[in-house]
Amino acid sequence: MLHRKYFGALGAVAISIVLAACGNTATPTAAKPATPHSSAAAGPASSSPTPQAVLLSKGQLTSALLSLSQMPAGWSTEGDSSTGDKTFCDYRQPHKARIQVSRSFQKGGGLTATVATVGIRQYASASDAAESFAAMEKALETCHQETYQGSVLKYSPMSVDKLGDQSLGVRIDSDGTTLLQQFTLDGPTLINVGTGGLTNADADTATKLLRDQVDRYEAAARK
Q1: Smallest Cα–Cα separation from 139: which of 104, 93, 181?
Q2: pTM tops 0.70
Q3: What's 138's DSSP letter?
Q4: Which of 20, 94, 125, 218 could be cross-linked to 87 through a Cys-Cys bond (beta carbons 3.0 to 4.6 Å apart)?
């Protein structure tokens, strides 16, 4: 059975890998059109129109994150999350995110505890975000396993809902613990949701949270 210390390490992975720090925070500039990109590993584009690629302030992006009142019953807030510099198999990111915001939640306790993270990374332009998404997608084509903080992490592609411009999913397994990570490219942002735990990794919950998070971001971007 996986000890709680490993659960804590994987909770950090859920935040640090998904919300890899990209260095400095810069003043937003006018967004450029997204560069088209398609791949079999990512979900097809959504039939709904993508919001205009406006750039939001850190405060606006933080307000767009799911709050406790938008979570299903039983969750508590773990707080706004700090980000690290970890990426899948340490792949090189082509662009640095200008603003990153994230929040984490927990449900239950002990061996039955479940964690959830939501986050938004905003780039200088929609094209920078698209190139960053493509780099992550390409890295995951060959990145299937690595060791991080003493734990062996195994990565597997996962089907995801068709949201935003493109979406992809990754299942992370380590010593009996499973984390489900879902990413959506939406204009100048990469939106992510992750759920997991020792005994439960609910794909339906992850899917619902991703839909809700994308909806909240798009509503903020249209204002």
Answers
A1: 93
A2: yes
A3: H
A4: 20
